[in-house]
Specification:
The complex is a heterodimer. Chain A has helices at residues 4-14, 19-24, 36-52, 66-78, 93-97, 106-109, 120-123, 149-155, 164-176, 187-198, 205-208, 222-237, 247-255, 269-275, 313-326, 329-339, 346-355, 357-360, 366-371, 387-403, 408-430, and strands spanning 26-32, 56-62, 85-89, 103-104, 136-141, 143-148, 180-184, 259-265, 280-283, 301-308. By secondary structure, chain A is an alpha/beta fold. Chain A is globular, with a radius of gyration of 22 Å. Residues 6-22 of chain A have low confidence and may be disordered. The two termini of chain B are 24 Å apart. Chain B is mainly alpha-helical. A two-stranded antiparallel ribbon of chain B has the order 1-2. Chain B has one domain: Orthogonal Bundle (MetI-like fold), CATH 1.10.3720.10. The model of chain B has no long low-confidence stretch (mean pLDDT 90). Classes of the chains: A alpha/beta, B mainly alpha.
Chain lengths: 431, 292
Amino acid sequence: MRFKPLLAALALSSGLLTSTQAFSATEIQWWHAHAGNLGEVVNKIAENYNASQSDVVVVPTYKGGYEDTMTAGIAAFRAKQQPHIIQIFDAGAATIINAKGATVPVADLMTDFNIEDYIPGVRYFYADSDDKMIGLPFNSSTPLLYYNKAAFEKAGIAAPPKTWEEFETIAPKLKEAGYIALAQSHSPWIFSENFHSRHNLQMATGNNGYDSTDVKLLYNNDHMKMHWSKVKEWLDAGFYGFYGRAWGDNQDAFVQQEVAMWLGSSGSFGGLTKSAEFEFGTTFLPYWESITKEPTGTFIGGAALFAMAGHDDDEYKAIADFFGYVTSNDNQVFWHKETGYVPITQAAYDSAKKEGYYDSTPDAEIGILQLSLPGGEWTKGYRLGYYVQIRDVMYKHYDDIFSGTATVDEAFAAMEKESNELLVRFNDTYK
Amino acid sequence: MKRVQFEHSTIPYLFVAPQIVIIVVFFLWPAAQAIYQSFLLEDAWGLSSQFVWFRNYKDTIFSESWLQAASFTMVFSALVTFLSLAIALLLAVKANEVIRGASTYKTTLMWAYAIAPPVAGLMGNLMFNPLIGDLYKFFNAIGWDFDHKLDSFDAGFVVVLIAVWKQVSVNFIFFLSGLQGIPKSVNEASMMDCKSSFRRFWTITFPLLAPTTFFLMVINITYAFFETFGIIDTTTRGAPGGATNTLVFKVFQDGFRGADLGGSSAQSVVLMLMVLALTVVQFRFIERKVHY
């Protein structure tokens, strides 16, 4: 490894390690997609781990956004220069898991691995059709409803809506009080994928895509069309604000108190506590009582860590050791508190609870509670190829619904056609 | 005419070698790779691949989203090229006539030249932000129901405005130096023959500017096709509903975000052919009308 002399020199000059230790340490490259505050927390995890033992040195590198990181990993893999660990996001999971030989499953890598240790909502999302975990869930979040308490008080509303039916009764009151009732930041994730999970509806054939790549998307269904007809009605009535596709623009509308409720990520909690100058609360993602009386849990969003293929045994041992550290209680609680992402193991959740973290910040628990809601047949997750493009297709047609250039029926029919063409391409490529 | 024959020497080859190496490494080799990749259906990691002839072309070029991007790219490029040339020419002619404080005018107009497209895009994004954007508020205040997040015309307006604004200063510099290159004697002679400054401009000045205009047109079309990527990426990203998606942005979306290498390569090969055809047309048909 050509970095070793440099590392040794650094170690010597800093006086932290002896040169012999540096030469014997296995270096693990970790490519991730977190900048800013999150990036600092990621660096801190690597620092803490490196300080905790002397056999392995983990080197985290920021590679841009989720897509950039995946593309960098792809380019590196093709040039046989791949990092040991790469962070791949939810929509890209099919790209790495379906390519035979790109990654080494976490379940094979880690000693005394037990999938039951993980909280239900994250357990199978990055697993294969045999429930074997392939990628280690790293930053896991889930969609939540944030609401402005002052706005609710001003409009004379006691509690946030549990169902969309309730939302329809309170939205006019919020409008009267001078607020747009609702905005949300990710139509495919919140109003499509999690819409299906929350109502326990199937979103793709082939067991939501886990069993096969030869699948079809089932978004063109009556429930989805009903929901989107309603969203369009709300938009026209001034109950719903659309500030573009960008996540931040819709969140800003909530922060600036233009909208009273915002659907975002449980991972947004930490940032909101800093930016919002008003008291806000969080609650579960609303559901339609007309569709189900027993709403189920949601999917996770975020990303997972994958061990890339093509490294030697010592390096895999080192990766496994680091993954063990990542999933340890101490690290999970640290990550959860610093970022708002949910702890991925039951044990870590229990420790946070024991510490009394949720007594002081009850809102931080909502995401985990929602992920721990009773699951159904269709709440495990989804595995769909070229899903990055499919999300673009969805965005495109949701724009058309909002602008009125297409009816809900037309938009969903076109979405189904274009998405299924992409799925056929993916199947032909990865079969 | 008798051909002059020089003695063969390897030295000239040595001199052109760096240029040739650069062309081969940075243009020919990647282009060949793209052509090769465009015939393959290959997983992103390069673990398995099949030769599929024109499947990638068929799947991508005939898709509705590609056709939409292609037609927007045409309209967008035509508008950006025409508007940035026309505005720059007008400004250059007027600035050329200014006597007092001429350098201040000129410097102010050249200002935007130093701004990179993504930065221009970010600035535009701020000005058109629905919550804090001044231009967004201004347009709505004067009675235009402006909403570039959902209205495709308004979104097109935003990207054209930013792209033109950024390019005008480049064209301005060239037009101004072109105008200053026209001999004074020609201008003075024409003044004696014709009173109308409007006619003088179109019959004397503009034809003399033709080489500059032609050069700028080639540069501007390339700019509108490729370099506006940074503007699209930082503003609309193709929204609403794919109405402002350009061909280059789509290549990036499918290849770099979506990891569909074959489809993306096929699109870039088609783009390459389109630009090639456009360049041939420009040089064969339009350049003939230009007198140097």
